[in-house]
């Protein structure tokens, strides 16, 4: 799965949140300064070419929806991130963030227990 640019990810966040929208709806959800309609429309078409977005035709307009779930993208992104920056080792990644964020072992254990509880 290809990585998203910052602008593409910003638009995907809106699509993941709202599920099915027109370009004008995407623009209303974006922070100020609002990008031009043509800019957002171009990014959405790029996302379609990459296979992230599909559309339905409504008269002369297109309504866009995500083809890739946020969870699937996050999983793919994180795998690539861990591979590139931590030699594929989640242990190294956790160790890094534990040191950087001064996360205590108790806090880490609590987080792991919460994650285990969420698993089906």
Q: End-to-end distance, in Å? A: 26 Å
| Poorly predicted runs of 5 or more residues | none
Predict the CATH topology of the largest domain: Arc Repressor Mutant, subunit A
Can you write the helix and strand succession as a string? HHHEEHHH
Q: What is the CATH C level class of the largest domain, in words?
A: Mainly Alpha
Helix/strand/pairing category: mainly alpha
Could you give a short account of the major beta sheet?
A: 2 strands, antiparallel
Tell me what portion of residues adopts beta-strand conformation. Answer: 5-15%
List the total number of helices.
6
- CATH superfamily descriptor of the largest domain: Winged helix-like DNA-binding domain superfamily/Winged helix DNA-binding domain
Helix share, percent = 55-70%
Main sheet: strand order: 1-2
How would you sum up this structure in a few lines?
It is built from six helices and two strands; from the N terminus they run H-H-H-E-E-H-H-H.
Give an overview of the whole structure:
- With 120 residues, this protein is mostly helical.
- It folds into two domains: 61 residues, Arc Repressor Mutant, subunit A (Orthogonal Bundle); 32 residues, no CATH class.
- Helices cover 62% and strands 10% of the residues.
- It has a two-stranded antiparallel sheet.
- A hairpin with a 2-residue loop joins strand 1 and strand 2.
- The mean pLDDT is 90.
């Amino acid at each position: 799965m290809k990585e998203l640019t910052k602008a593409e990810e910003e638009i995907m966040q809106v699509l993941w949140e709202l599920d099915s929208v027109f370009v004008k709806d995407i623009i209303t959800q974006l922070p100020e300064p609002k990008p031009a309609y043509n800019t957002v429309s171009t990014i959405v078409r790029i996302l379609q070419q990459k296979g992230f977005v599909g559309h339905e035709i409504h008269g002369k307009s297109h309504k866009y929806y995500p083809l890739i779930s946020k969870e699937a993208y996050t999983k793919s992104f994180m795998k690539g991130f861990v591979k590139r920056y931590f030699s594929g080792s989640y242990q190294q990644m956790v160790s890094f963030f534990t040191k950087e964020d001064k996360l205590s072992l108790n806090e880490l254990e609590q987080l792991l227990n919460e994650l285990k509880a969420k698993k089906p």
